[in-house]
Amino acid sequence: MPQILVDHSAGVDLDRAAFVVGVHQVITDVIDTTVGDCKTVFRPAGHCTVGDGTTGQAVVLVEIKILAGRSVEQRAELSGRVLTLLESLLTVPTAIGVEITELERATYRFVHHPGS
User: Fold this and answer.
1) Is 3-103 in CATH node 3.30.429.10?
2) What is the pLDDT of residue 59?
3) What pTM, to 2 d.p., does this model score?
4) Is 6 within 8 Å of 83 (Cβ atoms)?
5) Which of 39, 57, 74, 115 is most buried, judged by most C-beta within 10 A?
């Protein structure tokens, strides 16, 4: 179920494959899910600015959507571990944000569409 959305500066130096392996493992270590249920999307942004734009920092913003019902402590541990993972993989000055978003179990729907 977890959906991992990674918005980032277009030229950021991030090993995507290593991030996917790491973030999927972190998620399964912290909440009750499987690696096979994790889905990650990278969305490079054409333009990113930190502050007044003079720092030259890259930007990486990660949102992890999970089903509601996990404790604040679990969500905090997850965001902290993802932040640590990102810090270990990034090689340039980067503004990093990690957010855990809960999806309502009663209204969330997901399917694996087989295609036409």
Assistant:
1) yes
2) 96
3) 0.93
4) no
5) 57
Dihedral angle sign, alpha carbons of residues 51, 56, 57, 61: positive
> Quick one: pLDDT at residue 112?
86
Cα radius of gyration (the chain): 15
**Residue 3 φ/ψ, nearest 5 degrees:** -115, 125
Is pLDDT of 37 > 90? yes
DSSP secondary structure, the chain, as one string: --EEEEEEETT----HHHHHHHHHHHHHHHSS--GGG-EEEEEEES----TTTTS--EEEEEEEEEES---HHHHHHHHHHHHHHHHHH--S-EEEEEEEEEEPTTT---------
Cα dihedral value 75, 85, 29, 70, nearest 10:
10
